[in-house]
Amino acid sequence: MKKVLSSLLLTTATVMMFGQTIVSENFESLVLGNLGTSTAGNVAGQNNWYTLNGANTDYQVANIDVAHGKSLTIDSYDSFDTTPNSTLNGRIAARLTSVVASPANNILQVKFDFYTGSSLGAGSVQMRVWGVDGTTSRTLGGFQYNVATKVLSGLGTVNNLVAGTTPVGPATYSWAFSAAPGLVLTPNTWYSLTYEYNKTTGNHTWRYPGGMGSLSSTSTSYSLISGMAAEDIYLYNNASAGNFITNQVGFDNILAQFGNAATLGTNDVKNIAEVSSYISISPNPTSDILNIKTDSTINAVSVVDMTGRKVHVKLNGTQVDVRSLPAGTYLINIETKDGISTEKFIKK
Question: Is the whole-model pTM more than 0.85?
Fold first, then answer.
């Protein structure tokens, strides 16, 4: 990304005075080429970026166009592996942080530029904010782009209140920004996106091309979850069933920060309430069985530890037997018709 120096200094000063920066990354100071030297997920690459799955060449600091200068590109798998517990289909780049929001800064805001690439084949591209809900590690929210349909949607975790449906309790939903077919993006195009989570109210806000929206606080089908604490920024490029080609997408100008309504310039936005899908895992932490709740059929799951090593688990319907795993933190990849969702869990 390229910016005029005076503009960059002004932006930096504003953040220092009024907010807390979690991640500020425009990739201009990085060296062109591989982002890291390992895809095991446990070795920091350039500017403390971690990569998991695939090859080092799948994560590149590159020049997509002159206007953006250096950006991050992530290449998907060029096919789709139906082998149970396969790690071939997923690609993850992450920045892990230790910044804790001050009491006055109750809003998380993540701004970034997203490049759609050729958008051929099938897959799911995501920006997710990971954090904790009490002692439970979970996704707070973010964005999701369906490569096959080219539809952009929001991700946000709320409590499901509908009796007789599963899961009742916290679940990460995909929220449509407009009526069917949804908000369709154009291939090989840059878009500026913003995700916000209000820790006081529990509401999620998405700012996207042509509009913005947040959730209703009076819904009878779900309730907002306040108090979740944001921690890390994860970028995904996952291949889905039917994929036949490498999909390359791009990210740039990532700014994640804590602030409040005054310092971040947030304002009232319209409500959106159309849910397309969700995936939730429980209990988390677990000592034996991990239950997967989703409105889609589970095609396969795979689990890796935080070194990137694939570990053996047994899937039985919607239950994953993790009793044989040593205590620790793991990532589970869950494949459905909508793509691959990655969730973090703790084995006690």
Answer: no
